[in-house]
Amino acid sequence: MAAYFIGDVEVLDRGGYDEYATRFDATLAEFGGRILVVGGNPEPIEGDWRPGRLVVLEFPSVERAKAWYASPAYQEILPIRLRHGQTHYVTLFESWDG
Prior knowledge:
38% of the residues lie in helices and 32% in strands. The protein is an alpha+beta fold.
């Protein structure tokens, strides 16, 4: 069953963050991950969450998503994101098979 990472990460230093962004895509392929949404102009309709830069990633399963997050390739670039961005929200969930 598909799994999704959703994140709201504010970029504080664009120049520093660019290294992370440049290397990010290559970390997904091995785990079947793909980017569904990056950025955009989120328009809150209900509730208090006001994301600035929304990111939605899709993986074939929760296990593949966790394997990607824990992978040496992603863990190598994660500190770059943490140094140059402010994480407001990141979560992982499984799709609904309703």
